[in-house]
Design goal:
Elements lengths: L1 H18 L5 H8 L4 H10 L3 H5 L5 H34 L11 E3 L5 E3 L5 H38 L9 E8 L2 E8 L1
Antiparallel strand pairs: 1-2, 3-4
Helix pairs in contact: 3-6, 5-6
Length: 186
């Protein structure tokens, strides 16, 4: 009877050993960490780039910061130019002759100063329209960068454990019969 119990215990140990296989350190870390897509998207919504850091894709964070910084730069330049021209037009249109001698200084994207004093109001209105259109485009670009940041973090978290192997391939085919796509699964 004791021999049967000992035999059952050794069989149980052997079956447990065969069900587990040895993982490398990288595989074990990858299996332990599985990012939550909802958390990742929320982090990116709170602070752009934080979802990429949460997903452990550290190289993407500087790209997000560069895109956000570029958008902020263009918004600031266009807003400054728009306000300068708007204030200049209001000074020219009021009845105080002392205001007409004050300079209307506008900076372009290269930070070069332009003095628009002495220009007629119609030209200033066209410059104002130019800055307003660029400001609208910059704000739209900022919204697109913000949304793409969130979508990237969410998709990256969903595809974190996706197996990308050399056995999987998509390749274009160009031959006499036409153009196509080949899928290869080994």
């Amino acid at each position: 009877m004791a021999q049967v119990d000992t035999l059952k215990k050794t069989e149980k140990k052997d079956s447990l050993k065969s069900s587990f296989h040895v993982l490398s350190k990288a595989d074990s870390l990858r299996m332990i960490f599985k990012p939550n897509p909802r958390k990742s998207a929320l982090y990116s919504a709170i602070c752009p780039g934080l979802g990429q850091i949460y997903n452990r894709k550290y190289w993407k964070a500087p790209l997000v910061y560069a895109a956000v910084g570029t958008v902020i730069y263009f918004i600031a330049i266009n807003y400054s130019g728009y306000n300068s021209v708007r204030n200049g037009i209001s000074r020219l249109e009021d009845s105080d002759p002392n205001n007409n001698s004050q300079p209307i200084i506008v900076r372009n994207f290269y930070l070069k100063k332009y003095d628009l004093n002495g220009e007629d109001v119609t030209h200033l209105l066209s410059v104002k329209k130019y800055f307003r259109q660029n400001l609208d485009i910059s704000v739209l670009a900022g919204a697109i960068v913000y949304v793409l940041n969130i979508v990237d973090a969410n998709v990256d978290a969903n595809l974190y454990g996706f197996d990308v192997d050399e056995k999987l391939a998509i390749s274009p085919i160009v031959n006499q019969s036409g153009i196509g796509v080949a899928f290869r699964f080994k």
